[in-house]
Amino acid sequence: MWGETREKLGLFLGLVGVVCFSLTLPSTSVAVEYFGTTIVGLGRTVVAAILVAVVLIVRKEKLPSLRQFKRLLIVAFGAVLGFPLLTSWAMESLPVSHGAVELALLPLATAGFAIFRAGEIPSLKFWISSIISSLAVIIYALHLGFGQLQLADLALLAAVIILGLSYAEGGELSKELGSWQVIAWAIMIGVPFFIIPVGLNLTTEMLHAPIHAWISFIYLAVVSQFLAYVAWYSGMAMGGIARVSQIQYLQPFLMIVFATVFLDESITFFTIVIAVIVVFSVIIGKNAPVSKNEAVSRKS
């Protein structure tokens, strides 16, 4: 009974995380116009680190072990450095809808890494639903004319792979270290390397940025970089990495909705059709059995 309740809570927290993450690209698109790639990509971590440091000190959290520290380096590389920097750079030249459909491949990347890092073994039904979802978003991208890959596209695809590894590692590590502790320590590991480049890119013109740019940046620093990860890693720890990662298929369409509301990008009928297909696949994948290879899990 508790196991079923725990799994449902994990799926709910995963959904909360996805909704929060869905505002990341729209916020990045707004903020990068006024603050630039380095400030948006790395500066968000510097701001988040202030909040995180206060929480760690107040709660008197003990330092991670050496083994946990090594695993936190993987989380920091993906969630704190690679993904924010690559997406910030890509959003300088790509519309949010473009980035959204490419990030839809993130659940497959997460599930793939979960096999090796967490010892999870998704069933054939799970993979079929994942492939259907991936094909749907690829067709969607081609329909919009995104068939030819640009450097920004490659940056987004690299971001997907890097973050997929980070999600899988962080989701498994959350079970022993705690959900918010994983992203908190990852932020603290990364921030010392970011202070100098962020400082060198600060300009007085940034002080005159409009209020919506500052709101977007603060959202990226506080929610996208920290609070959303707390919900997301908690969800994966409770509901299973592969299964909860399926909820990410909703993310590109939520991004498009938010881009429409806040950035005046349009939603087509084709987008709605693809969204229905993806949501249906998510439901199938969510209920697909996922077994556990305990030997692999103990080694990770």
Automatic annotation (TrEMBL):
Subcellular location: Endomembrane system
SUPFAM superfamilies assigned to the protein according to its UniProt record, in alphabetical order: Multidrug resistance efflux transporter EmrE
Annotated GO CC locations: membrane
Bilayer topology term: Multi-pass membrane protein
Domain of life of the organism encoding this protein: Bacteria
Annotated TM spans: 41-59, 71-91, 103-119, 126-143, 149-168, 180-199, 211-232, 253-284
Keywords: Membrane, Transmembrane, Transmembrane helix
Family listed: Belongs to the EamA transporter family.
Protein name, as recorded: DMT family transporter
Organism: Peribacillus castrilensis
